Amino acid sequence: MRSSVSLVVAFAASCAFAFPAPLQPRTDSHEHSDNTTAWDEGATHEFVIHDSCNSSETLQLRKGLADAVTLADHAKAHILRFGNSSEHYRKYFRNAPSGEAIGYYEKVINGDKGDALFRCDDPDGNCEQPEWGGHWRGSNATNETVICPVSYSTRRPLEQLCALGYTVAGNEANTYFGSDLLHRLYHMPAFGENYVEHFAEDYAEALELARTSESYTTRDSDVLQYFALDAYAYDIVVPGTGCSGSESSPGNAPETPTLTMTDAPASTSDAPSSSQFSLNLTLPAPALKALLSLPLSHLLSPLIRETRLERRLLLPTTSARGIYRPRVDLPGEEEAPTTCFVLTLTR
């Protein structure tokens, strides 16, 4: 009897040692203190509007910027859903990888907005030019864009997309405040990174760029606008129909620059006769800059009555629009479209 009791006691004692000790809270040497800040402290999540904008302008700008984000958000969602296989994607980007376009839409949606300022005064005096809706201040203030008064009276809200006879092909990309501001955002380094450029200037050139230089489409400001508008119209506004319009819509007729030399008809009056001579010079930007830097103005001023400077897209293959140069076929390389200027002198 005594031995069995001893055995029970010994067993109980051994079991007591077998149970683990109660769990204690672990002391974390990296435990956060009250002074620790969030990793994105100082981030700016809302667009910054200068105090030169009055309450009405600020309200319209906020709405326009919200529309820009809406367009970018749906454009990104459309690409994420369909990749580069959808009809709309292939129309504007062809076979270009989709990551770059997704990234530039995402920067508008969720990129930090502290290095972009919208203002309503006119420190550079450019709003005095007729029909100017705004301008990026460039070297005067790289992170600033001015929105001119004409924008507040002419730009439409996104709710009117596809209304009032609008088509993507037949109207300007800046018809809507949201798409116009999308373009203005890409001018600023915080969003366009000095990488998104104007290789195309309108709808016809955007499609031409896709046909000839698709690798540049995903960083072309106009292409990013037109795709966002077209996809939103087709998917959201008028599902399955949209309002793309036709490539031959008014405003997209081909333009062909010319070299013209014209003599005016002989005068029938006693006044001295005058002749007109127009010379169109197609020059790449660096050559034009060099030409205009020459001290020729005092020599030409008695002879030249009018000068006109026009920007043109120089595409790598023959097309129905613009000024072109022959393609140089380099294995594995695609020629970049370049900007060219037409200088017209008339006497």
Key features?
12% strand, 11 helices, disordered N terminus, four-stranded mixed β-sheet, 36% helix, alpha/beta
What do these coordinates show?
By secondary structure, the chain is α/β, with parallel strands linked by helices. The protein is built from 11 helices and 8 strands. It is globular and about 55 Å long. The termini are far apart. Residues 1-18, 250-280, 295-305 and 315-335 have low confidence and may be disordered.
Give the biggest sheet. 4 strands, mixed
| Gross geometry | globular
Q: What is the first-to-last residue Cα distance?
A: 133 Å
Question: Count of helices?
Answer: 11
Poorly predicted tracts of residues: 1-18, 250-280, 295-305, 315-335
Bin the helical content.
Answer: 25-40%
Number of strands: 8
What is the average of the pLDDT values?
76
| SSE series | HEHHHEEEHHHHHEHHEEE
